[in-house]
């Protein structure tokens, strides 16, 4: 659903709707006020020169609600949006868009906390899966897992690069006291939808194990098994 408030009749020129509150010398809504819009939405909060401005609460007729900062009729600053499906976003807004740091809780209990850009997960963030108690921690681009990240389970974690919500190329699985190096390659075997992300992907991938080593530091770049063997030998000497 859209989380932009109605502006269609939210002025005096429409001669519609109800308003109770302060006005400035020009007769514009100014200061604290309450407006009931013709579509059934209700806004209560600050106005400046006829526009929603400052702290306010906007209640949509479908049950959604926004509580937070406004700037020139737009959600701008810090605010919380309660969606009618039970999801909730609490964080920063820029010109009616989720942008900056924020926490989004989904109807199924999943939650994402991190950076947003233009309403999409973008930058560094953590996505927690309620059902499996797993989580993804890493980079996001335009709402998808991209670049360096790690997928964390209760008894192991995968660390590597991601492309379009899927692991891609070299990486490693880290267990208690050891790790398995390998890489994900395209194969003809299909995988279950949603295994690595919120939705299915056309990518068909298979994990190709290469070696098992002691715990090493993941730098985001691939280290071959031979290099790990040499490093272990040097440490012993």
From TrEMBL:
Biased amino acid composition, Basic and acidic residues: 12-31
Any one of the GO BP annotations: axoneme assembly
Biased composition (Acidic residues): 1-11
Pfam families linked: MORN
InterPro entries per record: MORN
Organism domain of life: Eukaryota
Residue runs in coiled coils: none
The protein, known as: Radial spoke head 1 homolog
